[in-house]
Design goal:
- The complex is a heterodimer.
- Chain A is α+β, with helices and mostly antiparallel strands.
- Helix content of chain A is 37%, strand content 11%.
- In chain A, a hairpin with a 5-residue loop joins strand 3 and strand 4.
- In chain A, helix 3 packs across helix 7 and helix 6 packs antiparallel against helix 7.
- Chain A is extended and about 80 Å long.
- Chain B folds into two domains: 235 residues, Cytochrome Bc1 Complex, Chain C; 108 residues.
- Chain B has 16 helices and two strands.
- A two-stranded antiparallel ribbon of chain B has the order 1-2.
- In chain B, helix 3 runs antiparallel to helix 9 and helix 5 packs antiparallel against helix 6.
- The longest helix of chain B has 30 residues.
- Chain B is globular and about 65 Å long.
- The two termini of chain B are 32 Å apart.
- The chains are: A alpha+beta, B mainly alpha.
- At the A-B interface, helix 1 and helix 8 of A face helix 4, helix 5, helix 10, helix 12 and helix 15 of B.
Chain lengths: 287, 422
C-alpha cells in the first residue's frame, strides 16, 4: 500500500514536470546582447598563478591612474591610507598623501566641517552620497571601486577589457530573424544584418553586460597620467596598471595568502606521507 | 552493543575504577572509539564520516571567531565582513576557511550519502542511523542558507528573498510561515538578526544529532562494502588503532585539497555578485544559490506549467521538498535483502544513472533559467522521482542478486596459509 502510494507520487511528479514538454518553444534566437557581448581579453598580470605576487611599481602606477582619472567619479571607501604602505610607500609618504584629502568631520560647536585626512582614514569618495553621485552622472551611479575586481567575472581582465574596449557608437551589427508570410500563407525565415542602436547618452562597449555603458571612455588619450618611473603612459599601459591596482584593493592579502598556502601544503604533504606509512605498518598484519 | 564478543572497557587502576563507578565517561569514549569492533574490509569511502565531523568542527571554530568581529546589521554587515578581510589579524584566513569549509562540508557529506546509497547502508538494521543522517543534512542546508545571507551581498539578499518567497506557495499557512521566517514583508534587518541567531544555534543542534547518529551507528555496527553482517571477531578489527590511523590519513588528504582552495582559489566556489552590497532596488541578472543547492534548485525551476489544477510554483516547491524528504522513507522503498550494489547488477546500473542525473540537475540549477537548461532539467527531475519512487521498489522485487560471500573473513581466509581450503 505504501509502495503503491510512492509509485503514484513518483508518476505524478514525473507527469507534472514532463507536462511542460508539449509546450517546448525551442531555443530562442540569440538577441543583440548575446551576439555582440564579448568575453574579457586575455591579459597577464604579475599576481596570476600559484606563486604570482604584485608588481609594486605597477600598483603605484595604477594608483596614480585611480587618483588622476577614476577618483573624480568613483569612490574607494574600503581602502585606508595606511593600507597604501603595502604598495611600498613610507609612513611619511602615507601621512602626506592623507593630508591632501579633506575628510568630513564635526567642529567643536557641533557644526559639520572638514579636516585634513589622517593615515587611519579611508579614502573619501568624490560625492557626499549616492544621490549626489547620480545627479552628477546623468542618473547613473559610478560603483565603488574597492571590490570591483572581485565583483565581476574575471575581474581584472574584465576591467582592462572594458576600459580599452570602447567602440564608436552605431557601428556594430547583429543578425535579426525576420518571418514573412506570402499570399499563399507560406512562411519564410530570413536572417538580416541590423545596425545596433546605442541609446543617447550611452556609449557602446561590447564588454559591458548590456552593451550600453553610461561612463564615457575614461582613458581617451595617451599620457593622461604622469608616470614617475619612466614607463610610457599609453592607454593600454594605464588600463593594465589600474586593473592590477584594483585587484590589490579587492585582495590586499593575496601575497600573504599564497605564501602561507605554499607552506601549509608542503607541511600537509609530509604529513600525508607519514600517516600513509603509519597506516601501512599498522595494517600490515591484517589479512 | 549488538556484538557480544566485543571486549568491554576494563578499568585497571584504582582511580579509573573510582571514576567508572561515578561517571563512566572513559567507558563511553573507549567503547565508542577504542574498542569499537569495525569490519576490517572498509574501503576509503568509509573515511567520509570522520571527514564530515572534521569539517563540522572547522565550521564551528572558525564561525565562533568570525562572530567576534561580525556585525548583524544591514547597514554595516557587508562592511564588517570586509573589516574581517582587511583589518582583523588573519581574518582573511578565518573567513576563507569558513567560506570554503561550508562547500567542503557538503562535498564530504554528499559523498558520504552516496556511499550509503550504493552500499545499502540505509537498510535494516540501520534505518534510524539513516534517518538521523537525513536530519543532519536538512539542518546543514538550513544553516548554510542562513550563513550565506549574513554577508548581506547581492546574492545573499536576493537568494533570501527567492527562497523565503517559496513558502508563500503553500496554501493557507504559506504566508504565515514566510512571515515567521523573514520577520516581515521582505528581507531586512529583522531577517539578518534572526538568521544570525539561528546560524549560531543550528550548528550545535547538528552536533547533538551527530552524537545520536554515532550512537545509532554503534548499536548495529558499521556496514561494509560486501553489505553482509559481521559474523564474529575474525571479521573485525578494533577501531583504534586501525581506523584512527586510516581516518587520520584521510584527514590529511582532505585538508590538502581543502587548502588548495582556501589559499589559492578561495573565491572559485562563490559568486562575484556577492561582492556587491545588498541592494533591494537592483535585481542581479541570474539569481542562484551556492553550488550545493543547485540540484534542488534545478528541480524547483523545472516546473513552469500549472498541472492538474495545482500552480507551477507549488509543484516546484512540493517537488523540491519531496526530493529530500523521500530519503526518510527510502529504507522502506527498497526491500531488497541485499545491501551492497556490488551484488545487485540492475540497481548498480541505476545508481550510476542516478549519479549522472544529479550532476545534470546541478548543472541546470546553476545555469540561467532558459532553454535548453529548462527542458533538460525537466527530464532529469522526472528521472529523479521515477528512480526513487518507481524503479527502486520494483527492482528490489524483480532483481536476481549475485550470490553473496559467506562472511567478511571467507574470501580472505581462502587465500591465506592459516586455514586449509574446506
Amino acid at each position: 500500500m505504501f509502495k503503491l502510494g510512492a509509485f503514484f507520487a513518483g508518476l505524478g511528479f514525473a507527469a507534472a514536470v514532463l507536462w511542460g514538454i508539449w509546450n517546448y518553444e525551442g531555443l530562442a534566437y540569440p538577441d543583440a546582447v548575446k551576439q555582440l557581448h564579448a568575453k574579457p581579453k586575455e591579459v597577464v598580470f604579475a599576481n596570476d598563478g600559484a606563486f604570482g605576487s604584485y608588481d609594486l611599481a605597477q600598483l603605484q602606477r595604477g594608483f596614480a591612474v585611480y587618483k588622476g582619472v577614476c577618483s573624480s567619479c568613483h569612490s574607494m571607501k574600503l581602502v585606508s591610507f595606511n593600507a597604501m604602505r603595502d604598495l611600498g610607500y613610507s609612513e611619511a609618504q602615507v601621512k602626506a598623501l592623507a593630508k591632501t584629502y579633506d575628510v568630513a568631520s564635526i567642529d567643536d560647536k557641533g557644526e559639520p566641517t572638514t579636516r585634513k585626512g589622517l593615515p587611519s582614514d579611508n579614502f573619501p569618495g568624490p560625492y557626499a552620497n549616492d544621490e549626489a553621485a547620480r545627479a552628477a552622472n546623468n542618473g547613473a551611479l559610478p560603483p565603488d571601486m574597492s571590490l570591483l575586481a572581485s565583483a565581476r567575472e574575471e575581474g581584472p581582465r574584465y576591467i582592462y577589457s572594458l576600459i580599452t574596449g570602447y567602440a564608436a557608437n552605431n557601428t556594430a551589427h547583429y543578425k535579426q530573424l525576420d518571418e514573412t508570410t506570402d499570399s499563399s500563407g507560406h512562411k519564410t525565415k530570413l536572417e538580416k544584418l541590423v545596425k545596433y542602436e546605442t541609446p543617447d547618452g550611452k556609449y557602446y562597449n561590447p564588454y559591458f553586460s548590456n552593451l550600453n555603458i553610461s561612463m564615457p571612455p575614461p582613458l581617451a588619450a595617451d599620457g593622461l597620467v604622469d608616470y614617475t618611473d619612466g614607463t610610457k603612459a599609453t592607454r593600454e599601459q594605464m588600463a593594465k596598471d589600474v586593473s592590477a591596482f584594483l585587484t590589490w584593493t579587492s585582495e590586499p592579502k593575496l601575497e600573504a595568502r599564497k605564501r602561507m598556502g605554499t607552506n601549509v601544503l608542503a607541511f600537509l604533504a609530509v604529513l600525508i606521507v607519514l600517516t600513509y606509512l603509519s597506516k601501512r605498518k599498522i595494517w600490515a598484519n591484517i589479512k | 552493543m549488538a556484538m557480544d564478543w566485543m571486549v568491554d572497557y576494563q578499568p585497571k587502576s584504582g582511580i579509573s575504577k573510582w571514576i567508572d563507578q561515578r561517571l563512566p565517561l572513559p567507558r563511553l569514549v573507549y567503547n565508542t572509539l577504542g574498542g569499537y569492533p569495525t569490519p576490517k574490509n572498509l574501503n576509503y569511502f568509509w573515511n567520509f564520516g570522520s571527514l564530515a565531523g572534521m569539517f563540522l568542527v572547522i565550521q564551528i571554530v572558525t564561525g565562533i571567531v568570525l562572530a567576534m568581529h561580525y556585525s548583524a546589521n544591514t547597514l554595516v554587515a557587508f562592511n564588517s565582513v570586509e573589516h574581517i578581510m582587511r583589518d582583523v589579524n588573519y581574518g582573511w584566513l578565518i573567513r576563507y576557511l569558513h567560506m570554503n569549509g561550508a562547500s567542503f562540508f557538503f562535498v564530504v557529506v554528499y559523498i558520504h550519502i552516496f556511499r550509503g546509497l550504493y552500499y545499502g547502508s540505509y537498510k535494516e538494521p540501520r534505518e534510524m542511523l539513516w534517518i538521523l543522517g537525513v536530519v543532519i543534512m536538512l539542518l546543514m542546508m538550513a544553516t548554510a542558507f542562513m550563513g550565506y545571507v549574513l554577508k548581506w551581498g547581492q546574492m545573499s539578499f536576493w537568494g533570501a528573498k527567492v527562497i523565503t518567497g517559496l513558502f508563500s506557495a503553500i496554501p493557507l499557512i504559506g504566508t504565515s510561515i514566510q512571515t515567521l521566517l523573514v520577520g516581515g514583508p521582505v528581507p531586512d534587518n529583522y531577517t539578518l538578526n534572526r538568521f544570525f541567531s539561528l546560524h549560531y544555534l543550528l550548528p550545535f543542534v547538528i552536533v547533538g544529532v551527530v552524537i545520536l547518529h554515532i550512537w545509532a551507528l554503534h548499536i548495529p555496527g558499521s556496514n561494509n562494502p560486501l553489505g553482509i553482517d559481521v559474523k564474529g571477531p575474525q571479521d573485525t578489527v578494533s577501531f583504534h588503532p586501525y581506523y584512527t590511523i586510516k581516518d587520520l590519513f584521510g584527514v590529511c588528504v582532505a585538508l590538502f585539497i581543502f587548502c588548495i582552495f582556501v589559499f589559492f582559489t578561495p573565491d572559485l566556489l562563490g559568486d562575484p555578485d556577492n561582492s556587491i552590497m545588498a541592494n533591494p532596488m537592483a535585481t542581479p541578472a541570474h539569481i542562484k544559490p551556492e553550488w550545493y543547492f543547485w540540484p534542488f534548485y534545478g528541480i524547483l525551476r523545472a516546473f513552469t506549467f500549472d498541472f492538474f489544477g495545482i500552480p507551477a510554483k507549488l509543484w516546484g516547491v512540493l517537488a523540491m521538498f519531496s526530493s529530500i524528504l523521500l530519503l526518510f522513507v527510502l529504507p522502506w522503498l527498497d526491500n531488497s535483502p541485499v545491501r551492497s550494489a556490488n551484488f545487485r547488477p540492475i540497481y548498480r546500473q541505476m545508481f550510476i544513472v542516478f549519479v549522472i542525473d544529479i550532476l545534470v540537475l546541478g548543472w541546470c540549477g546553476g545555469s540561467p533559467a532558459a532553454e535548453p537548461y529548462v527542458i533538460i532539467s525537466r527530464f532529469a527531475t522526472a528521472y529523479y522521482f521515477i528512480h526513487f519512487l518507481v524503479l527502486v521498489p520494483i527492482v528490489a522485487r524483480l532483481e536476481t542478486p549475485v550470490s553473496l560471500p559467506k562472511s567478511i573473513g571467507t574470501p580472505v581466509l581462502n587465500y591465506g596459509n592459516l586455514q586449509p581450503a574446506e
